[in-house]
User: What shape does this take?
Amino acid sequence: MTPLVDACRRRLADDMAARGCWPADSPWVRPAVEALPRHRFAPERVWVWDGEEYLPVDRAADPRGWAGAVYAGSYDSTVIQITDGLPTSSLSCVSVVADMLDSLMPEPGHRVLELGTGAGWNAALLGLRAGAGRVASVEFDAGLADAARERIRSAGVEVSVRVGDGTLGLRDGAPYDRVIATYAVEEVPWAWVAQTRPGGRIVTPWGRLGHVALTVADDGRSASGWVQGLGMFMPSRYAAGPGPGFHEIRAAVPPEAESPFSRDPSALTDGNALFALRVLLPDVRITTESGGDGVRALLHDGRSSWATLSAPLAGTAGRPAGARPAVARQGGARRLADEVARAWRRWERAGAPSLHDFGMTRTPDEQYIWSGDRETGPRWAPG
Assistant: This one.
């Protein structure tokens, strides 16, 4: 480890501590991360976003830039593969890795299945925790699998890395005590539940916005659990592409309507409202940005409709907060701002549950989202 890399590593560890990201209920996580530092699983070339495109950063040519990209921050991932201009694999941000491992609750001796090997870092952390030969990992991309297998071996950890379709799980070694996915799914594959023992735990990103932890029922016929936190995840390679982004749609579709908007868009910087809207409007992408003229939310459906919600910062132009209403501008076949307003009202009428009040149940026949109490709480359906 070079002094430069070590300094970046220590700075990130301190930032995790300052932000309270090391999980208190899983004290093994930080020592494991320190024993298997992130840079040992990063390729010689990583990729950074310059505001317009992903650019390569090579360790040999730019060691400072490479170290900075690998240890960027507690909430920053490191892109390790670009395909057709889009990221298709990354080293997840440390805070999310720690949070998901905490949610998974693996113990020494557990049999663990990981779906989505990627760089191999998470698999190695699991192998260090569960023990030699107790972890199997499945990766779709043969090249990534080969590289990860070598990195894990070089780190002195014994993990079985297989090439295959993660949505099918891995029958060899089932039933597992723990199953974890490192890519987002819209619907939890039933194979994951079927391959987990009763009382076992499944942790997976859902819908690229948050992750859930499900416990398999005693009869093995369902799995239920709570949303654990937020985090952006890449989808399965088998998922449909993301479609055009906001700026592409906005450039192609002129504005057609402008009207006041009754909610403050800055609330969408909070994960609770954002998650509820994700549940109710699963195909609407929402991002926020702040500038000198206030907070703006950008909405699009990945096809042909867009909207912006703009609100001034408190006290802008000498006015008190709330003196100037938010404005919705939108274009396309759908009126996304109107859809968001209706979904927002529905969430508020239900008591505005936080993201941690939401849960998921998966059965052989369906998957549904609920809030409050699994048995008596309301089910949330899009629309």
Q: What stands out?
A: Residues 315-322 have pLDDT under 50 and may be disordered. DSSP finds ten helices and 19 strands in the chain.
